[in-house]
Amino acid sequence: MSVELLAPVGNYESFIGAINEGADAIYIGGNKFSARASCENFSDIQFQNMIDYAHEYGVKFYVAFNTLIKQNELKEAFEYGIKLYNMGVDALIVQDTGLINMFTKFKECEVHASTQLSIHNLKGAQYFEDQGVKRVVVSRELSIEDIKIISEKVETEGFVHGSICVSYSGQCTMSGLIAERSGNRGRCAQPCRMEYSLINKNGQEFKNGFLMSPKDLMTINILPKLLKETKIKSLKIEGRMKRGEYVVNTVKAYRNFIDKIQKNIKITKEDVKAKEEDLLRVFNREGFTNGYMLGYEGEKFLSVNNPKNQGVYIGTALQDGSVILKADVSLGDGISFGDNGFILTKILNGKDKISEAKSDMKVKLFPNKFSKGDRLFKTNDQKFEKELRKSFENEYVIKNYLKARFEFIPNKPMVLELFSEKYDFSVKVFGDVVEEFNNIPISKERLIEKICKGRVGSFSIDSVEIFYEEGYINISKVNEIRRNALNEFREKLVNKFHKNLKYDFEENFESKTRIQNSDEEKYFVFVSTDDQFNVVYKKGFRNIIISPFMYNRKINFEKILSFEDLNLYIKFPTIIKEYEFEKIFNVFQKFEKNIKGIMTSNAGIIKHFKNSNLEIIGDYKLNIFNSMATKFYEEINVFTVSIELCEKEIEDLSKNSDKNLCMFVYGKPDVMVSEYCPIGTFVGKRSLNKNCSRPCIKDDFYLKDRKDNKLLLTTSINCKVSTYKEEPINLINEIPNMRKNNINIFRLDFIDETYKQTEKILDYLIHRKSFKNVFKGNYYKPVD
Ligand code: SF4
What we know:
A hairpin with a 2-residue loop joins strand 16 and strand 17. Helix 2 packs across helix 13, helix 5 crosses helix 18 and helix 9 runs antiparallel to helix 10. By secondary structure, the chain is of the alpha/beta class. It folds into four domains: 241 residues, Ribulose bisphosphate carboxylase, large subunit, C-terminal domain (TIM Barrel, Alpha-Beta Barrel); 81 residues, Translation factors (Elongation Factor Tu (Ef-tu), domain 3); 96 residues, no CATH class; 190 residues, Aldolase class I (TIM Barrel), CATH 3.20.20.70. It contains 23 helices and 39 strands.
């Protein structure tokens, strides 16, 4: 099976470079609803030309439609998507489940489920496939083994190179909450790339640095294993925000290795080293990581000291300001040391000025801004990048050659037929009538030369079978028939992808009138300690959510199970890899008989319980932004809407949904879910070869930023980490307002609140006392 190499495109240079270097497919953001807001914008005509250009080369053209869609954007988003399909895009990569629900209604619309949907287990992938999704882009946190399991059954696309988020993509609301720039809408402010300290509850510091900043993913060294052991369909390179040089460099490297693997050409250690060095030269953060492909890498996964492009180490400054080079340098290169940098303007070899210096030479570099002991890095390699730029300097570098059959017979129109084994069609074009000749006939050779001359787009003719009798025609007419035939061939090819879909939004997705909820308010309360449970129970709340999957929570489940007047719900971990289900279900079975339902945001869990009698509450981690998303998850009984929605957006959603909506009105928000565990890495010393000493079972841990803001870390029995903002969202004052919007189901989460704190919250709620100066999340601060 041939695997697809999928390249990122954020500008025209990347587009041309990706195709010239042999990408099988490209993905790009549309002008709207793309998670890379700062990429180049293209007009419709430019976009159409690019789609046609890609199709000339048999390159698939995907558009990333991977942002969450607010209710008032739904119609525009749907219409924009249909317009893209009509322009000929091969698939949309979609995050918003409302949009997936809409596009998958139409068989002509191929939908790929974005990595933003955190699809990480086979059941989850199958859930999306059941809903009409053709391909799933799996989470970047998967190992080769995980990918193997999913790709056996479901068409799978996975990242092999580029930046990775520390959180599972689609599970981070941190940027939205602190800066109103939602990572789920392509506006992430990257708070994870800041400096943090890891501390315990007593304030003891275990590590300081860029503790949430992963290196970039690189899989060149494990590509043979990945391709041999899995049936992954598409290898995706991240980097729509990156420059053309980066795209050329990465596509070139991966193309080369994929071809070798597919042709069974041996890849040596030297080949790998050379390719890794090429990749390092354009962008890296303290080198690369294999991510989770081979397992949990521990500290090696992170760029703890420098979250920016580190470049290539070129040497350490000596006492006299000279450097013994570890890599070549040239004038114009960008050099960095610590937080500083300069452009290389002079190189001295002894007393000689030189324009470039090779590795191992002892030279002086200018401007000499560094001091003895400074480690120097080349962050911009002029010579190398100039070479890379050549790849996108010209369009249509690669030609598509066609064969021709040409009839040139006096008193008959010229006929030119074009065809090729590569295509399942041919074209036949008629030209002007060939005249009898008076003096000299046009020779056969001249005609062949004219037919093979020039090109249209990538197409030109390289061989002609000619049916010839001596005759005459103005040579411009031969040029004309060639141009017409090539044009027609090209048109026929690219038009095959154009569509003429006419789907009316109102007609297909008419909004349902909201069912009137009962007057009674309903509360779901999540508790994670006995103290919290005791006070919640005492205050009369009976819909209780618990999680037996969290580590280090002081709670007695046996006792809770003994209460007969409770409606108990079990909250599942957001992330459960396929091989972890057994462990999770082993725990779950102790509760199964005593519960009313479950709470989850895991598609695999939804699939598992869809036919059970249990009530399913959708967690806010499902990112429900619009009414169509509530229709996507038919099995869910109650939807907790996204915590990134503001008052007006919730009102819009509520007006258009006929489902039970629940508002998260109190609790520390779980702003990130990650495979990476800072506690295990820096305290438990977990790595590829070493198990964790499990410190999270005995202590509470936090990340503290430079302004002393704390993030609480909680861990689960399958070693996933939830990061909670210390300041809880408190929307209790807004409940009457929400009631006006016909929402009467509310949820409160208690994570590490004491008895007294829990009691105070509940007293205020019960007696409708007003809170002062509380954090209201995005309720009045809409995210971008
Ligand atoms: S045992 Fe705890 S500290 Fe160790 S990796 Fe797992 S979750 Fe992290």
